[in-house]
Amino acid sequence: MFQKLFGFGQRSRRVVIDGLYERIVAASRQPVFYARWEVPDTPLGRFEMIALNMILFLRRVRDEESAVVREVAQEVTDVFFADVEHAIRELGIGDLGVPKRIKKLARMFYGRAAAYGEAIDAGDVEALAAALRRNIRPDSEGWTGAEPIARYALAAAASLESQQTERLIAADIAFPDAKREN
């Protein structure tokens, strides 16, 4: 089955990888995150939401034994970091500053993956909300958006678990509508 998905050469594979990443980004750009739950609609706020949805995808495929699945996950991660690098350059960071910023953002991403993954694995809304609050709005003690985003993340994790791996890595991935989850 996996061979059929990627049997048409590198161009077809690139289309699938780009399509998968586009769906992850679309999930992170749901207006409710920014308009109702007050995630800052800034480069860093958008990074936080894309990172959350990337983490949800990577968490879903982490235990898959197929080499193709691992390759797809790595390629989507590579596209994510290429996108981050592009965004950094668009902000006017020069060539000398880019590697340092990428390294910092990679540490942030993998730190979030560990904290969010642990809370998601435990089904702990409060722990996930605390981690989201720390990362997304550390400047706002009374931020109420963390709990609904945590509930969205748990619903998304459950939804992704129910989706067939073959469909996920064919870019036929579905994230829940965040406004319906709360």
From TrEMBL:
UniProt-listed InterPro entries? Ubiq_cyt_c_chap, Ubiqinol_cyt_c_chaperone_CPB3, Ubq_cyt-c_CBP3-rel
What range(s) does the Ubiquinol-cytochrome c chaperone domain occupy? Answer: 37-175
- Per its record, how is this protein called by name? Cytochrome b pre-mRNA-processing protein 3
Pfam families per the UniProt record, alphabetical: Ubiq_cyt_C_chap
Annotated PANTHER family: UBIQUINOL-CYTOCHROME C REDUCTASE COMPLEX ASSEMBLY FACTOR 1 FAMILY MEMBER (PTHR12184), UBIQUINOL-CYTOCHROME-C REDUCTASE COMPLEX ASSEMBLY FACTOR 1 (PTHR12184:SF1)
According to its UniProt record, which protein family does this protein belong to?
Answer: Belongs to the UPF0174 family.
- Origin species: Nitratireductor aquibiodomus
Q: Superkingdom, according to UniProt?
A: Bacteria
